[in-house]
Amino acid sequence: MPAHIIDGKTFAASVRGKVAKHVSQLREIHMTKPGLAVVLVGEDPASQVYVRSKGKQTVEVGMKSIEHKLDASTSEKVLLALIEKLNTDTEIHGILVQLPLPKHLDEDMIINSIDPAKDVDGFHISNVGLLGTGQKSMVPCTPLGCLMMLRDYHGSLSGMDAVVIGRSNIVGKPMAQLLLGDSCTVTLAHSRTKNLPEVIQRADIVVAAVGRPQMVIGDWIKPGATVIDVGINRIEKAGGGTRLVGDADFASCSSVAGAITPVPGGVGPMTIACLLANTVTACYRINGLEEPGEFTA
Ligand code: GUN
């Protein structure tokens, strides 16, 4: 039987709908409008597309959106001064500095200068530490989106074997922490893992976030497993042109898996939806209000 397709586009629309309701409540009952500031340094074309999309969706759910587009040659001092200004701006509840930054800027230092309460990416060292110790934190958007989809499909994840492929700070490592928090038995695999097919064969849940087009194939998957594909890779089409594919080979995996996220239309749309959800969560917390449980790990 072919796998159930987990529709991230529809799921993300439902998350945005819930976010919009919370934004209305915050505005009407609590007289506060959540605000998100996005900082883009340089002109990386992919980053420009993301930033435009974030700005549009932020406005659509009723939040304040501001964008700071800085020249690629911007100094660390100027960028730090901007972040400090946003840290103290009472109309801003979320700050996102688009990565990657130009090489002359110290990415870790810049991220750690953001007020952790406004760190809607969940990349600040204090949020990383809070997540790692199971405390309330801001959670990185892509893994949070994956977790929401897994919980929605399975209900409880308790006791399931999960293999995360990829050890990035943005996806792999926080994903492993989140699955552990939901009582999965977690293996964090990566490009140097020995016998990767055998490791994956054990998994009830496979999260592919390794950045290699169509690497995970159906033969490696346990029948009935759930495959969450975080990869977004552009490859050449046989007849010319290009197309987007994930880190899993959709054709072979979907004939073995129980459920799978497609690329495009799976994890991708969830990332921005979770960014909006994190901004709402930050707004509740900063104002000392009880936050909705539905968006948090
Ligand atoms: N670049 C690629 N993904 C991300 C993300 O989730 N957050 C930020 N800040 N930059 C990114």
* Main beta-sheet strand count, sense and barrel state: 6 strands, parallel
State the CATH class of the largest domain: Alpha Beta
Unreliable sequence segments: none
Shape-level CATH architecture of the largest domain? 3-Layer(aba) Sandwich
CATH homologous superfamily descriptor of the largest domain: NAD(P)-binding Rossmann-like Domain
Q: Could you explain the architecture of this structure?
A:
The chain is an alpha/beta fold and 297 residues long. The chain has two domains: 29-116, Rossmann fold (3-Layer(aba) Sandwich); 141-269, Rossmann fold (3-Layer(aba) Sandwich), CATH 3.40.50.720. It is 39% helix and 16% strand. It has ten helices and eleven strands. Strands 1-11-8-7-5-6 form a six-stranded parallel sheet. A three-stranded parallel sheet has the order 3-2-4, sandwiched between helices. Helix 2 links the parallel strand 2 (35-41) and strand 3 (64-70). Helix 6 (141-154) crosses helix 10 (267-286). The structure holds guanine (GUN).
